[in-house]
Model the fold of this input.
Amino acid sequence: MRRIYKSRSQLAAMRAPGLLTGRALEAVRAAIRPGVTTLELDAIAEDVVRSGGGIPNFQLEPGYHHTICANVNEVVVHGIPDARPIEAGDLVTIDCGAMVDGWNGDAAFSVVVPGGSGELVGVRERLSQATHAGLWAGIAALASARMLGEVGAAVEDAVEAAGDYAISDDWIGHGIGRSMHEEPPVFNYRTRVLGPAVKPGLCVAIEPIVVAGDQATRILDDGWSVATVDGSQACQWEHSVAVHADGIWVLTALDGGAAGLAPFGIEPRPIRDR
Done:
């Protein structure tokens, strides 16, 4: 497992793709409204990434030609951007990544499109809140964890405390660095395997994926999009996080994770160049 740990200079090199990923997601978030299409959101993200000197790393996946995955309502992961207008009250998850100088960033957020009403909108909002809580509980746990498995336990506890939800066991987090998906796996629930030690050099993408019903899924006709079989709503939040000698730093958060970690009494520490 020694190869999963990166040097300080390597972690410092991951700041640029992390920030670029974060900026692309913020630009997309600002553009989400009723009537916009996910293809239009994809173009916004690609422009930010390329204008910032990066490469959309999702496009490096064989057969995938977009900068984002856009998962709407019952779509769990890998939603292909299309020309269908987003509607008020939709639950939209945007997953995005950028590569800069051979290093990768990967993050996702979810939002309920303003203007909706009714019981289903409330279901979607509470699901997003529960998933968001799981993400930050996991990141906070990483700050003091001895073993990586403690992150999954924290995610599970936070999601379960928020309501009767199912955490996907098909889709989990991962290491990140020269490749977007590296060892080690980052589970979003308790496992018997505690995983590697949490120590300086560890860099992982924590990404709870939670559904409001049964987690059974099917692949849609486009060959990529994965949706719940029973039509249950699905949600994902994700950040790439580095552990270094001075603490942790959320690479894909524009504030390094300060706002998300404040409720836990944790202050993220920037990665020094030397």
Summary: The longest helix spans residues 119-142. DSSP finds six helices and 15 strands in the chain.
